[in-house]
């Protein structure tokens, strides 16, 4: 498995190089630049803007710009944000903890609910409870996240006043105190519930259907014929085979943790990586936008690798050579 992992990691290098070319090209094809909106004769000297464009290398040939960017990038220098006027690494690192908290909480909610509802519906198919769970799943699949977010804010933040509607922490509380951590969790819970419960629908259906399908296979009939207890049949024989599809989702969820569901973060004005990416696109902040895109691409490849490795852990029949 170690050789397989190393081989996959080395195979990511040409893939990331190709992705970097595509990302850089698409960024340069966007109209305008980060200084386009700053040209105001009353506030900003146009000559200063031109000097900054020269300094940033915007007038260099595209191959030269790409080489300068990628050579600095591989050395850990992501450039300086044209919007925040600080290093891109500092901008991203400031938002990462919020997104990790949001994504981790959402995934925890997703897997707990999906496992509980999926296993129950799979063990008792076509009952009233199974139909109710199925109705919840179809409702979750049909509602867009931005609609669910707006309704959640209106009901739970404005009407019931159970959760705050925006931000990541109460700014009046001292940083690092116990009340500060409680405030962080209180602020993240509502967007995490929206994000997690919408993802629960597909996970629950996959687990339910796999449990029903596996319960009809020959190895289950053989186990029943041998007198194996029904609880052991479900927990060992059926459930272990049924969780394999969820492992695929877990690999891709690594990307979801960092990207932080751009729409959800925007609706709740939650200061994470997703909202930062959207802002960098709208303000043409090329260094931040390209660094985040490369980060998402790298995590996608890592997520695929993690999913493949977990396949072998869950199912010993799968061998990674």
Mind summarizing the main beta sheet? none
The CATH superfamily turns out to be MetI-like
Helix count equals 13
CATH architecture: Orthogonal Bundle
Helix content: over 70%
Q: Could you give the count of β-strands? A: 0
Q: Tell me the domain tally.
A: 1
Radius of gyration: 24 Å
User: Beta-strand percentage?
Assistant: under 5%
CATH class category name: Mainly Alpha
Order of helix and strand elements from N to C terminus: HHHHHHHHHHHHH
CATH fold-level topology: MetI-like fold
* Whole-number mean pLDDT: 82
Alpha carbon gap, first and last residue: 7 Å
Q: Which spans have pLDDT < 50 for at least 5 consecutive residues?
A: none
Summarize the helices and strands and which ones pair or pack:
Elements: H1 2-29, H2 46-56, H3 62-74, H4 88-123, H5 128-142, H6 145-159, H7 178-214, H8 218-225, H9 230-242, H10 244-259, H11 262-267, H12 273-282, H13 286-314
Helix pairs in contact: 1-13, 4-5, 4-7, 4-10, 5-7, 6-7, 7-9, 8-9, 10-13, 12-13
InterPro entries: BPD_transp_1_N, MetI-like, MetI-like_sf
Pfam families: BPD_transp_1, BPD_transp_1_N
Domain ABC transmembrane type-1: 96-307
